[in-house]
Amino acid sequence: MAISQLRSLRKPSGGRYKQTFRKKRAYELGREPAFTGLGKKRIKYARARSNHRKIRVLSTDTANLFDPKTKKYEQIKIKTIAENPANRHFVRRNIMTKGTIIETERGRAKITSRPGQHGVVNAVLLN
């Protein structure tokens, strides 16, 4: 069955909304999450609307790290995932999402991009 982003047909109380039922529309389709992991870089392209392409990072071991003190970027190796506010079990599985705290060679950093959507891991140094 297709993943749909259609509003639920049921109210929070369990009752049904008054509407005539219709088929799923192509613009309401969703996709499986990318679950960007830690490892050798692997990417996948997904077709988006208007003939655009989304780059999905399936796994990576580098991040574009921004240092707020020196105001410079550098590409740095990711050691491990320290915290993930999206799901505490993602830490065990080494899955990166936006807001994840990662351990790098320069210290702890917070991911500011959406790796499964943007195709790149951008992070800001916390220390």
| CATH topology term | Structural Genomics Hypothetical 15.5 Kd Protein In mrcA-pckA Intergenic Region, Chain A
**CATH architecture classification name:** Roll
Query: What Rg is obtained from the alpha carbons, in whole angstroms?
Result: 19 Å
- Spatially, the strands of the biggest sheet line up as 4-5-7-8-9
| Number of beta strands | 9
Taken together, the total number of domains comes to 1
Q: Beta-strand percentage?
A: 35-45%
Q: Supply the CATH class.
A: Alpha Beta
Order of helices and strands: EEEEEHEEEHE
Span of the ends, CA to CA: 46 Å
Stretches where pLDDT is under 50 for at least 5 consecutive residues are none
- Broad shape: elongated
- The helix content is under 10%
Please give the largest β-sheet: 5 strands, mixed, barrel
The average pLDDT is 92
- Helix count, DSSP H or I runs of 4 or more residues: 2
How would you characterize the overall build of this protein?
The chain has 127 residues and is mainly beta. The protein has one domain (36-125): Structural Genomics Hypothetical 15.5 Kd Protein In mrcA-pckA Intergenic Region, Chain A, CATH 3.10.290.70. Helix content is 7%, strand content 39%. It is built from two helices and nine strands; from the N terminus they run βββββαβββαβ. It has helices spanning 89-93, 115-118, and strands at residues 36-38, 42-47, 53-60, 62-67, 72-83, 95-96, 101-104, 107-111, 122-125. The strands form two sheets. The protein has a five-stranded mixed barrel. The chain has a four-stranded mixed beta sheet with strand order 2-3-1-6. β7 and β8 form a beta hairpin. The longest helix is centred in the last third of the chain and has 5 residues, at 89-93.
